[in-house]
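Translate structure to sequence.
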């Protein structure tokens, strides 16, 4: 009986989360961590250590591997995935979560603010998806989850660069889903609404009541609200879901 059960136990899993040092990425790393799972996660700033996330992963019995990798750099991303492939031979799940904002009204937006946001959010997602696709196609299995945003669907004044990058992620998700489906690789996006993290702390402080008035469920989201959906999309229960955008926004956009 026992040996039968062992033969059906799932193989060790390799999870990769970009921008895993804090906020939504940290919650995603924690949610995927369990014994037999290795969680590779990256971040940008050289001062970031990823220690808190690594502690969360270890506490859940997983193996954390933090790395400083700029997702906007094709060379760094290639090196990152080569290391993962050499060490584990596979990637089961990639969550493209790293993202930045550089907000201003369109007429005041600097070219560099446009370029930076598109480079990190959209090109970064492309770089990592491309790097992992070869491996997943060979495995004939993979789950790619891209973090978009409600504003990628609705637009938002003051966020033309960010909204364009997040809308671009939706187009990328749908195209990659079509290209990779025949080999058992699904690609989906999550579009969070307003989630309380460092990225939104300042605006939340200034506009709390205004923000809450736009959310039918009358609270802002938590990183865990998003992480739970990422785990679902990587689970067997979501095997027949690909090319979709799952909104996690408390009803902010219906
Ligand atoms: P945070 O600012 O809290 O965290 C961003 C993470 O991305 C950090 O780990 C940061 O690393 C990393 N990062 C930034 N640039 C790069 C880069 N070039 N290469 C690698 N890593 C990078 O953001 P959130 O947790 O709030 O957001 C996570 C994702 O969710 C983003 O894509 C965001 O656009 C999206 N989102 C967030 C919403 C919200 O309300 N918070 C709503 C909708 C979508 P470091 O620690 O080094 O800075």
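Result:
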């Amino acid at each position: 009986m026992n040996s039968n059960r062992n033969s059906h136990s799932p193989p060790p899993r390799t999870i990769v989360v970009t921008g895993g040092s804090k906020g939504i990425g940290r919650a995603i790393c924690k949610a995927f961590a369990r014994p037999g799972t290795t969680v590779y996660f990256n971040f940008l700033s050289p001062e970031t250590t990823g220690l808190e996330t690594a502690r969360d992963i270890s506490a859940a019995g997983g193996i954390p591997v933090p790395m400083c990798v700029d997702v906007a750099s094709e060379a760094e991303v290639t090196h990152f995935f080569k290391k993962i492939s050499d060490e584990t031979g596979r990637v089961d799940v990639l969550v493209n979560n790293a993202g930045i904002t550089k907000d201003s009204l369109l007429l005041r937006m600097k070219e560099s603010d446009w370029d930076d946001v598109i480079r990190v959010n959209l090109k970064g997602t492309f770089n990592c998806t491309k790097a992992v696709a070869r491996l997943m196609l060979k495995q004939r299995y993979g789950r790619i989850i891209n973090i978009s945003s409600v504003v990628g669907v609705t637009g938002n004044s003051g966020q033309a660069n960010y909204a364009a990058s997040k809308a671009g992620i939706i187009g990328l998700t749908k195209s990659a889903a079509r290209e990779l489906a025949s080999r058992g690789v699904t690609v989906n996006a999550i579009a969070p609404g307003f989630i309380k993290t460092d990225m939104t702390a300042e605006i939340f402080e200034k506009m709390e009541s205004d923000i809450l008035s736009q959310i039918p469920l009358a609270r802002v989201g938590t990183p865990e609200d998003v992480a739970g959906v990422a785990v679902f999309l990587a689970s067997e229960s979501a095997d027949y879901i690909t090319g979709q955008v799952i909104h996690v926004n408390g009803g902010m956009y219906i």
